[in-house]
């Protein structure tokens, strides 16, 4: 058995090339298929993965997950919160319990979900308390390892989240004392990992991969010391596989030096996000006798690698480390399976793309080239790529326009001036009521859209159907007595894809699905060239809605940062430049909406916080371009046009200055679940424009009472004066049903009217 890693990936997509897992999970949850049927689909997906990875020198196992790889460790440690075990008896199967923590039960809400680093993947946040018990579960990574061995794989490497990152990504369990930190349970968790490593050694695993990516975030001395302690202990085990500690999504900083001083045999680094890391490696003496797994192929974007550059980056490390291996920068979980199935894509774009399968081929080739035997092959591949792959589509007019942007283009008149002009024009009451944009997407609406996309429903019929829906939604809002209306977004499948579908510079795939969480997948558009907006996108729908009512109807756009965050974005120019191109496209749309008589325009930036880099030191540079792009999009609006923005979260302490910096006239935010806490933060920095803290938690099907909403409004009024306070739900209503939405909006409007009196 080889002890060399050679070429590898840190992880692989697991939903199946045709979303087989999604379908199998949903059938199982709906009671339409048995656990055995689900397990058979999962086994097929794993077998497919092993075939896809066969060309690599070392392949990870255990990267398959029924729902989430962090939840897998929760199950592995048997650290399931007590609410899922009501009588402390083990009823049901391990799989049932696993789905219970992910999806909740009638009596127990699911574990919280949160973003995995700065990606659009969500993990289930472990809940760890002083009393959490840890023990090795019956089903462990041994299972998938031996399955791979039985399938003839001789170089399998079990991979899982490491003990320190697991605890750093956890939150204190309900009822834990104020000062409790999950990391204080490290010794108990490491004890279970010790047992696991011994079992893996017993079945013959040469390597184990432990992902410690939490160290690409800023970490305290105590946390670094925890890392040292954990790996000194695991390193000291006599019966164990070689340990590869992987860090992805950024620069592990001082954690690299800590690991280098332990007895672990290998370290994997993300040299795509942090190319400078390569220069530091030579100075870390402890790496001289370790394996360095160089992540030079981008695991989270879809572009073909510049192979000669990747090779020279790896080769520059020769001599500084013991063994050298080539890898993806992170798990390939974030990219779709296969470019070759995308037959409808423009071949000039396809030629530039590499999804998971193509990336594996690149890595295998780099691995061979590194050992010389593949260098002719590499030369051929490089010259093939050069002839096949075009460059990004250039649009000189767009480039000239971005180059000519001046600071003034990102600046509107003073807010005092604007707010006076808007108040005169709009004449809205204090505590104005509105919604965030979408109304429930009924199956009728979705079917009409699907039929239209498939060509079964002609343009005129489709327009008539959507207009009918808009009429219904406007009438409902008028009856409810809302002050600022929306058209309801029935024509939008998704807030980013809708725009990507019409803007030059974007392509959309047919099977390019990636997992967002559990069975939920998204198909990010590919932003491959210069972006422009040759014609209006939303103006017809907006003006139709406005023609139906004397009340203002908000124009509804998705902001530049969110469009970038939820797309695969070209990497041949700074993100800020690409964001400015998108911003100018939106700026044109705003101008056209104004021209058509729309008085209020909302520019959603749901993902502003999501793209924050893992390290604080990088936040400033990010927020500069992100805020700058939003301001470029909105900076041309007249003083009399009220610009709203909507942000999809309540913990925005980290971006609070940026939110102020957006300079929107009104900001709506999530607040119902945190009971308006966010308002105090905003007021503390002197935010002085309109704000609409959500008073209705749309994440739950519960219908809140009028009293409950009134209490939240009262809370909000203590922090914000009535003339700047807006009353609205937490987010769009598209995932809810009318049966909940109508009474809740009714209660919301009544509570606002009552507060006004
Ligand atoms: N306007 C969008 C909607 O209401 C906003 C959604 C979001 O922020 N996620 O659906
Ligand atoms: Zn939202």
From TrEMBL:
L-homocysteine binds at residues 436-438, 489, 604. Gene3D superfamilies: 3.20.20.210. One of its GO terms (molecular function) is 5-methyltetrahydropteroyltriglutamate-homocysteine S-methyltransferase activity. Residues 7-318 form the Cobalamin-independent methionine synthase MetE N-terminal domain. Its EC number is 2.1.1.14. Binds 1 zinc ion per subunit. Pathway: Amino-acid biosynthesis; L-methionine biosynthesis via de novo pathway; L-methionine from L-homocysteine (MetE route): step 1/1. Keywords: Amino-acid biosynthesis, Metal-binding, Methionine biosynthesis, Methyltransferase, Repeat, Transferase, Zinc. Its cofactor is Zn(2+). The keyword Lipoprotein does not apply. Belongs to the vitamin-B12 independent methionine synthase family. HAMAP family: Meth_synth (MF_00172). This is 5-methyltetrahydropteroyltriglutamate--homocysteine methyltransferase. It comes from Actinomycetospora endophytica. The gene is metE.
């Amino acid at each position: 058995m080889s002890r060399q890693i050679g070429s590898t990936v840190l992880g692989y997509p697991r939903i199946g090339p045709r979303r087989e897992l999604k379908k199998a999970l949903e059938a199982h949850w709906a009671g339409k298929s048995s656990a055995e049927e689900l397990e058979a689909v999962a086994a097929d997906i794993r077998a497919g993965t092993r075939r896809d990875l066969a060309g690599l020198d070392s392949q990870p196992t255990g990267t398959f997950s029924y729902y989430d790889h962090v939840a897998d460790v929760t199950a592995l440690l048997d650290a399931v919160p007590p609410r899922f075990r009501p009588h402390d008896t083990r009823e049901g199967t391990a799989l049932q319990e696993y789905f219970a923590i992910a999806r909740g039960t009638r009596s127990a809400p699911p574990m919280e979900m949160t973003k995995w680093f700065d990606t659009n993947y969500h993990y289930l946040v472990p809940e760890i308390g002083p009393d959490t018990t840890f023990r090795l579960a019956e089903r462990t990574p041994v299972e998938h390892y031996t399955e791979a061995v039985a399938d003839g794989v001789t170089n399998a490497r079990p991979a899982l989240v490491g003990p320190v990152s697991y605890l750093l990504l956890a939150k204190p369990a309900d009822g834990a004392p104020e000062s409790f930190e999950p990391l204080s349970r490290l010794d108990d968790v490491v004890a279970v990992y010790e047992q696991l490593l011994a079992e893996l050694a017993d079945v013959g695993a040469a390597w184990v991969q432990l992902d410690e990516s939490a160290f690409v975030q800023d970490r305290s001395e105590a946390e670094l010391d925890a890392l040292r302690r954990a790996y000194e202990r695991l390193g000291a085990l006599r019966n164990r596989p070689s340990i590869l500690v992987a860090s992805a999504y950024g620069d592990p900083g001082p954690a690299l030096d800590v690991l280098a001083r332990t007895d672990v045999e290998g370290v994997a680094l993300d040299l795509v996000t942090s190319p400078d890391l390569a220069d530091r490696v030579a100075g870390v003496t402890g790496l001289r006798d370790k394996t360095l797994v160089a992540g030079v192929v981008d695991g989270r974007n879809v572009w073909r690698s510049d192979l000669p550059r990747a090779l020279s980056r790896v080769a520059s490390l020769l001599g500084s480390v013991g063994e050298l291996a080539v890898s993806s920068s992170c798990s390939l979980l974030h990219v779709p399976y296969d470019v070759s199935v995308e037959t409808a894509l423009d071949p000039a774009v396809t030629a530039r793309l590499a999804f998971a399968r193509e990336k594996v081929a690149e890595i295998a080739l780099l691995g061979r080239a590194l050992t010389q035997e593949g260098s002719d092959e590499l030369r051929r591949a490089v010259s093939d790529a050069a002839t096949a792959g075009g460059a990004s589509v250039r649009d000189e007019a767009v480039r000239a326009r971005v180059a000519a942007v001046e600071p003034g283009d990102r600046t509107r008149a003073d807010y005092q001036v604007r707010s006076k002009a808007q108040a005169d024009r709009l004449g809205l009451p204090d505590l104005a009521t509105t919604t965030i944009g979408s109304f429930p997407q009924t199956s009728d609406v979705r079917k009409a859209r699907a039929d239209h996309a498939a060509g079964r429903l002609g343009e005129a019929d489709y327009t008539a159907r959507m207009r009918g829906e808009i009429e219904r939604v406007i009438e409902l809002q008028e009856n409810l007595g809302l002050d600022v209306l929306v058209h309801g977004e029935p024509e939008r499948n998704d807030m980013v894809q809708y725009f990507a579908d019409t803007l030059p510079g974007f392509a959309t795939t047919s099977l390019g699905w990636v997992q967002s969480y559990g069975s939920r997948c998204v198909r990010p558009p590919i932003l491959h060239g210069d972006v422009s907006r040759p014609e209006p996108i939303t103006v017809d729908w907006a003006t139709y809605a406005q023609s139906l009512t004397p009340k203002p109807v908000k124009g509804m756009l998705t902001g530049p940062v969110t469009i970038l965050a939820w797309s695969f974005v070209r990497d041949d120019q700074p993100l800020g430049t690409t964001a400015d191109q998108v911003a100018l496209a939106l700026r044109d749309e705003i101008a056209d909406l104004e021209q058509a008589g729309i008085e209020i325009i909302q520019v959603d930036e749901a993902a502003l916080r999501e793209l924050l880099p893992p390290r604080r030191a990088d936040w400033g540079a990010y927020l500069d371009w992100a805020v700058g792009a939003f301001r470029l999009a909105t900076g041309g609006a007249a003083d009399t046009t009220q610009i709203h923005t909507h942000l999809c979260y309540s913990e925005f302490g980290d971006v609070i200055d940026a939110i102020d910096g957006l300079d929107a006239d009104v900001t709506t935010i999530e607040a119902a679940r945190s009971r308006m806490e966010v308002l105090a933060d905003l007021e503390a920095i002197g935010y002085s424009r309109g704000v609409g803290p959500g008073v209705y938690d749309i994440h739950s099907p519960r219908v809140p009472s009028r009293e409950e909403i009134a209490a939240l409004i009262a809370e909000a009024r203590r922090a914000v004066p009535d003339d700047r306070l807006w009353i609205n739900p937490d987010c769009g209503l598209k995932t809810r049903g009318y049966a909940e939405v109508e009474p809740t909006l009714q209660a919301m409007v009544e509570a606002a009217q009552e507060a006004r009196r």
